[in-house]
Amino acid sequence: xxxxxxxxxxxxxxxxxxxxxxxxxxxxxxxxxxxxxxxxxxxxxxxxxxxxxxxxxxxxxxxxxxxxxxxxxxxxxxxxxxxxxxxxxxxxxxxxxxxxxxxxxxxxxxxxxxxxxxxxxxxxxxxxxxxxxxxxxxxxxxxxxxxxxxxxxxxxxxxxxxxxxxxxxxxxxxxxxxxxxxxxxxxxxxxxxxxxxxxxxxxxxxxxxxxxxxxxxxxxxxxxxxxxxxxxxxxxxxxxxxxxxxxxxxxxxxxxxxxxxxxxxxxxxxxxxxxxxxxxxxxxxxxxxxxxxxxxxxxxxxxxxxxxxxxxxxxxxxxxxxxxxxxxxxxxxxxxxxxxxxxxxxxxxxxxxxxxxxxxxxxxxxxxxxxxxxxxxxxxxxxxxxxxxxxxxxxxxxxxxxxxxxxxxxxxxxxxxxxxxxxxxxxxxxxxxxxxxxxxxxxxxxxxxxxxxxxxxxxxxxxxxxxxxxxxxxxxxxxxxxxxxxxxxxxxxxxxxxxx
Length: 500
Ligand SMILES: Cc1cc2nc3c(=O)[nH]c(=O)nc-3n(C[C@H](O)[C@H](O)[C@H](O)COP(=O)(O)OP(=O)(O)OC[C@H]3O[C@@H](n4cnc5c(N)ncnc54)[C@H](O)[C@@H]3O)c2cc1C
Known about the structure:
Helix content is 37%, strand content 19%. The protein folds into three domains: 4-47 and 55-84 and 221-303 and 448-499, FAD/NAD(P)-binding domain, CATH 3.50.50; 108-212; 307-436. The radius of gyration is 22 Å and the shape is globular. β3 and β4 form a beta hairpin. The chain is an alpha/beta fold and 500 residues long. The two termini are 16 Å apart. It has helices spanning 13-24, 70-77, 109-119, 124-146, 158-163, 168-175, 179-185, 201-214, 222-236, 279-285, 294-301, 320-323, 341-347, 384-388, 392-413, 429-436, 479-499, and strands at residues 4-9, 29-32, 44-47, 50-53, 86-88, 93-96, 102-105, 217-219, 240-242, 247-253, 256-262, 267-275, 308-316, 329-332, 356-359, 374-382, 421-427, 467-469. The protein binds flavin-adenine dinucleotide. Flavin-adenine dinucleotide binds at residues 9-15, 32-35, 40-42, 55-58, 60, 246-247, 276-277, 281, 309, 311, 379, 436-437, 443, 471-472, 477-479, 482.
């Protein structure tokens, strides 16, 4: 056959692992990426003497060599583990408020529980109950789904069945009375994009469980190092990559994939296409409407887009301790509202009282930035649709106003930061839209409402023969799930070929 066995659209996590796994199996694979480097979100960019991490705050699912987690095993199977230098983060997170409140946790269950009990003695019993519930839920989920129990009955997994469709807020309200405790325990909602009133409890439980049991990690060289290693592995197995090469159209005939057309108008034939682009752009932007079956449109209409992000990337001319950065991951809260009202704040342009997460990688990895310097990545979630309404002539003014507001919020807690800024870059939802190509710059795919949670995700398979998806749009978002999504898509293709 001329052309390729498979074309992969997009070199984000899912696209990279799908490409590498298919090439490892001997398929002829072409990876097309519209940007000039691999990674998608898993990337970095340089300003002055700093290389800024774009996305990765905490890598989940890694585990230690003695107690490997699923991600460590997956990277081992891909043959790239020994090419990465992993940095274990000694702290889980801290919550810090301008009124002086501060609490921090190590990634140890007993330490988290005892720290919380010391701060909230009136809720001692409920704190034990909550973490027992988190562990029971996570262990039953893993047994039923990760280890693929063929008969996952209610009798075998009572906690999973009882809590699968509860929101995080329902569980927190059932157990706790102190709003400060509820806010401290639920800050990880920012990693999924929905406040506790809407967030499915399973996400909060799984996030706590995986970060505590498998520890939060970072990578020397940032997430770009991981993307580069996977790209090199793909090339070493005979794969081909073209950067600055967006796909304009997926060619379909009689319900089956024929290949793709690039933005330069070149038509390249392939029997399989794996899309790492969003499901929305794949079906709506890259395919002729008559080729897309009605059920696909109906399915997509029932979902909503996750928020995007507003981020400050700051490079400082001093070490972290000179600024008061003592922990790698800090959630900065100004109020305790974790209700639905948070959603309307995410719709608004001003930063206001929104929670923010500040990551200073140099705390866990002193070599992350050049000697005598450090960097911080400060993020808050914002919906892209509001930014789309900003007129082009006002864009820079609005962007700098929001950045100034964010910086003032940081200064409330770390008053010395402004005087030490050497480089400052700002990313808005428009930036994510531009670099990822996702609708409204959504960084977490579709919103993971309980009705759209891990139990009801759209499939990686498409009714179009030969089309597969590998991204955070067809499963959970995050590094571990999207890296896994690529391997799952590759496995499905290999199985199809083996059956023939
Ligand atoms: C600010 C931020 C912080 C985050 N923090 C964390 C964290 O701490 N821990 C964690 O686990 N996860 C985190 N995430 C989430 C994680 O980064 C993402 O879920 C994951 O990287 C998404 O991978 P993906 O495979 O879906 O591809 P994406 O990263 O979405 O990449 C898609 C790729 O497809 C390309 N593409 C799109 N259309 C086309 C086309 N037509 N032709 C060619 N190429 C195309 C794009 O250019 C892009 O390279 C964060 C994300 C962001 C943005």
